[in-house]
């Protein structure tokens, strides 16, 4: 069957837009590299400060702005210890009237329910927002969970972070999750995506209680990501060392503590389901596979052809995640290699 003219036209326009974005990105990278080269020759510290600003700037893009919520929740705000305003959206468990009332600790609880429903938290990644994980909301509500999603500082609808608008850090994302949990109750599970997986693990390292974790397109080697960033910008050794020092100062802790694998070696962690696609271009599949293998009580769910973002809205992935976090596990094991189904 042939492709209609309108479909061809749409495809051509989309290809042109992608090509234009790639050209703009290449030009911007060239300009930044040139500026850094000049600064490094004059003042590596100034170059490191520019690199810090770039590292702490979340990316933008259509995939990160996508909204898969089908019904609006109840909007509230919390304030982190550092003073950042965080927007929170909550949904009552299905069958409780869909309304929320405020509990004694300031967080909403399902109105009309005989007991407080277990809570599942949704944590977006770097440059993302709560709407990206919207496909999980209704299935989780249907399974009896109250659902809580939020926007980290300088993301989505939340206020700026410590470094100002459009700037944020890993510890701020972790602190935002911990603040939301203090207001809304201990998690039955946290479902997180991309860098949100590393910040969730950081929060667990710092004492966040969670019965289960779901790590979608997980990042494990944050220091490796930093090295790749430095390579991309062609930073000199002195500039790299200064950048690491600045980042440690901003984080208020050694950078090694941000590494997921370091946490696995030194801290107890709850069981986790790692979901990763073989075609993920942002975080290669072997990263997720190795993380699942190293994780105590870790499981790996493999997908094919969904990339870094589409697995957040794939019905089979959503179903597998809900099954995993539901207390009564199905008698028939979940197929942990969804890639085989399309073979």
UniProtKB/TrEMBL annotation:
<dbReference type="Pfam" id="PF12697">
    <property type="entry name" value="Abhydrolase_6"/>
</dbReference>
<feature type="region of interest" description="Disordered">
    <location>
        <begin position="93"/>
        <end position="114"/>
    </location>
</feature>
<dbReference type="GO" id="GO:0016787">
    <property type="term" value="F:hydrolase activity"/>
</dbReference>
<dbReference type="InterPro" id="IPR029058">
    <property type="entry name" value="AB_hydrolase_fold"/>
</dbReference>
<feature type="domain" description="AB hydrolase-1">
    <location>
        <begin position="120"/>
        <end position="320"/>
    </location>
</feature>
<dbReference type="InterPro" id="IPR000073">
    <property type="entry name" value="AB_hydrolase_1"/>
</dbReference>
<keyword id="KW-0378">Hydrolase</keyword>
<protein>
    <submittedName>
        <fullName>Alpha/beta fold hydrolase</fullName>
    </submittedName>
</protein>
């Amino acid at each position: 069957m042939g492709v209609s003219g309108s479909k061809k036209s749409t495809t051509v326009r989309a290809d042109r837009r992608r090509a234009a974005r790639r050209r703009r990105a290449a030009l911007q990278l060239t300009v930044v590299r040139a500026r850094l080269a000049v600064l490094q020759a004059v003042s590596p510290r100034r170059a490191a400060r520019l690199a810090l600003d770039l590292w702490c700037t979340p990316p933008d893009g259509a995939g990160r702005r996508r909204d898969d919520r089908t019904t609006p929740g109840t909007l509230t705000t919390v304030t982190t210890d550092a003073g950042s305003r965080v927007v929170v959206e909550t949904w009552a468990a299905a069958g409780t009237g869909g309304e929320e009332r405020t509990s004694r600790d300031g967080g909403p609880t399902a109105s009309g329910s005989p007991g407080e429903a277990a809570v599942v938290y949704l944590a977006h990644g770097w440059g993302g927002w709560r709407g990206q994980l919207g496909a999980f909301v209704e299935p989780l509500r249907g399974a009896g969970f109250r659902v809580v999603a939020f926007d980290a500082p300088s993301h989505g609808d939340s206020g700026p972070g410590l470094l100002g608008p459009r700037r944020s850090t890993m510890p701020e994302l972790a602190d935002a999750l911990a603040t939301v949990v203090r207001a809304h109750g201990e998690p039955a599970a946290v479902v997180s995506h991309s860098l949100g997986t590393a910040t969730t693990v950081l929060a667990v390292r710092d004492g966040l209680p969670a019965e289960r974790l779901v790590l979608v397109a997980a990042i494990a080697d944050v220091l490796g990501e930093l090295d790749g960033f430095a390579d991309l910008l062609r930073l000199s050794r002195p500039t790299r060392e200064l950048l690491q020092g600045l980042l440690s100062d901003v984080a208020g802790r050694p950078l090694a503590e941000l590494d997921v694998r370091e946490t696995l070696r030194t801290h107890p962690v709850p069981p986790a389901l790692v979901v990763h696609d073989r075609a993920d271009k942002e975080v290669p599949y072997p990263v997720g596979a190795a993380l699942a293998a190293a994780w105590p009580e870790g499981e790996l769910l493999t997908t094919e052809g969904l990339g870094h973002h589409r697995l957040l809205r794939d019905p089979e992935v959503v179903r597998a995640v809900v099954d995993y976090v539901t207390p009564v596990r199905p008698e028939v094991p979940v197929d942990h290699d969804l890639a085989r189904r399309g073979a």
